[in-house]
Task: structure prediction
Amino acid sequence: MLVTPAKIEAKQDVAALLMRGKAWTVNDLVKVLSGSSPMGAIGDLVTTVNCQHLMDTVSRFANGGFLLHRS
Result:
């Protein structure tokens, strides 16, 4: 038995691009790098931003899902 995949047409599918970025100024990084553990501090800074972006993304997905299923 041969299984053939269904064709997907572009007009049927919609995709959301999740592109978020963060840039720091030199002054922001100098504050972080002047501590006793600069690499740890940068890791904490990046982790905080990534967590905020993840929470924002999950929140938007949840809100979108609930809005799509309202009748």
Q: What stands out?
A: The CA atoms of residues 32 and 42 lie 7 Å apart. The chain has a mean pLDDT of 80.
